[in-house]
Amino acid sequence: LWACLLFGFLDAAAIRMQGVPLPVVGEVPVQFIQALPYVLTVVLLAGFIGKAVAPKASGKPYVKER
Question: Which of 11, 46, 55, 62 could form a disulfide with 37 if both were Cys (CB 3.0 to 4.6 A apart)?
């Protein structure tokens, strides 16, 4: 849910940033601004998922007990 809200916020920010000159760089090409929500979402999610720990039994076959 938070990833969807983050992407929506970044997409709305990208729409607002089109055609707005930045102080140091000037006008940024529209293609970079349109790619910004996708890049930032992947980077932020990779940062959060990198801290996740896999289950201990991952990769071990399940043997059903009788």
Answer: 11
